[in-house]
Amino acid sequence: MLPVDPPDGAWPAVEEFLRARGAAEMDHPGGTLLEHLLRVARLLGVWGADPDLRAAGLCHAVYGTDGFGQALADTGERALLGELIGERAEALVHLYASCDRGVVYPRLGSGRPVVFRDRFTGRDHIPPEPDVRAFLEVTAANELDVLTHNAELADRHGPALYRLFAASRDLLSNAAWDACVRQLGRHAPDAGPAIRIAALDHLVPTVDGEDHRH
User: Fold this and answer.
1) Closest by CA position to 18, among listed 91, 95, 81
2) Which domain of life does the protein's organism represent (predicted)?
3) Whole-structure pTM over 0.90, yes or no?
4) Which of 58, 128, 158, 203 is in the most buried spot, having the most CB atoms within 10 Å?
5) Cα–Cα distances in Å, from 61 out to 28, 34, 73, 109, 178?
């Protein structure tokens, strides 16, 4: 169970929904996808996230991503998820799922506001800054949890992830950035050429010039 009270008692129903959609049977670093989702929500709570953001973290993989194709629900079911976690939290889940990461992630270090590209529609748009901040919080919680549970991925992708979060430092909460520094600080680019992130999937980044077959 999460160490904070869920909004309107909704999270037990959300966990039941995730189980019904197979999250407890999907393998994931650290156990199952469901266990990962619960840890991400818990970590966001530790960082002081509000209930909407914690609920979005719990459901961040429901629609899949451009790097994690095992969706638990179709985007045609947005109203259903909205009933479970609220419209605001569902909108954050959809933003997270719809992000074309190969386009958006390089933009995180190239000025503000950040122009997103929706991978479902192919259209560019500029989300409100609070939504972009929420997106980065979920991204950090997701990736840090994965790397905590897979040392090989941590060694391989830590440098690229550090650079991603350093480039978007202004959009992260202090607690999230402190966690990134604690876990990824050893990968800070004190020397050597910079790594340009081309894309980042649900689990790990894809970096130019490297082969990542997982």
Assistant:
1) 81
2) Bacteria
3) no
4) 58
5) 12, 10, 9, 24, 24
